[in-house]
Amino acid sequence: MNYLYTAYVVTWVVHIVYLFYLSRRAARLREEARDLERK
Amino acid sequence: MKPTYVIASLVTFALLSYGLYQGLVVAPTEATMGDVQRIFYYHLPSAWVAFTLFFLNFVGSLLFLVVKKDAADKFAAGVFAVLGVIGLGISIFGRSYTEFASSIGGTLLMCAIAYLVIRHFFHSQPQADAFAASTAEVGVVFCTVVLLTGPLWARPVWGIWWTWDARLTSTLVLWLIYVSYLILRKFATGGQTPTLAAALSIFGFADVPIVYLSIRYFRTQHPQPVINGGEGSGIDSHMWAAVLWNLLAFTVFAIMLVTTRYKLAQAERRIEEAFATRDLEDDSHLISRSTR
Hints:
The termini of chain A are far apart. Chain A contains 1 helix and no strands. Chain A is mostly helical. Chain A has one helix at 2-38. By secondary structure, chain B is mainly α. Helix content of chain B is 78%, strand content 0%. In chain B, helix 2 (40-66) packs across helix 4 (99-121), helix 5 (125-158) runs antiparallel to helix 6 (166-187) and helix 5 runs antiparallel to helix 9. In chain B, 34% of the residues are buried. Chain A binds chain B through residues 1, 3-4, 6-8, 10-11, 14-15, 18-19, 22, 25-26, 29, 32-33, 36, 39, and chain B through 20, 24, 35-36, 38-39, 42-43, 46, 138, 141, 144-145, 148-149, 152-153, 155-156, 253, 257, 260-261, 264, 267-268, 271, 274-275, 278.
């Protein structure tokens, strides 16, 4: 059972890390767009 | 955030939750392996999504190289249209001869449809490049899941975490090829980077059929294919619901991720272009001031 739960948890950790990476990238883009408007 | 995006996210979340419920609760326990076999409900859909995305990356990369010249673009579209017709013919008429002919026909037809559909939606070099980059990145994420869940399943069932058999080794090589593709895109400088990445992707894709066929043509520790594996292959009919629900859920999730990543790539390009235009305008102001 431990292997089963570890596999499911590992799958979701990988996906959540990737979603976090995407959201960071989107936030950085929004900041750059604001910079562009300001200057 | 757009309402359609919110609705799509909610649907994806609901599908993933239902897939999880099917995999952990509804599907029957396998007789020899026990509950650990339920890893299959995440392992197989992740592999399916990863291979599909690498295929789409291959098509996107091919399109990127071809779309540059109008004549080459039209020629490629014509070739794929002809291949599609041939594939359709083989799948209809070849079925009565051999299963192999039928599968070749199906593959040709699928390649032709994929190319023509992608060409319709991403018919410019920046669009094709962004599409290829997005599919490769999300594909690597799902391939990582395959490489992590596989050993976690192998340890209790085979008694080992890893073995260098044809399926496992070719999958690891596939992952390394696409990781190198992403590293190339991230760190290479100069205008030729997308072209080099596209060429790497086209050659790298050659590993996908090897991974797929490895369990059919080599003796491997990895089990024989579940779908179209011939006599004695397949799973219990009660397990199919969990497999199909998770396949659907992971496919929809991958579409969401690729769409998000593609939109980000497009936004990045627009911002880069806006910065470059602004810098050019600043430079031209300076030049005109100094010549006065």
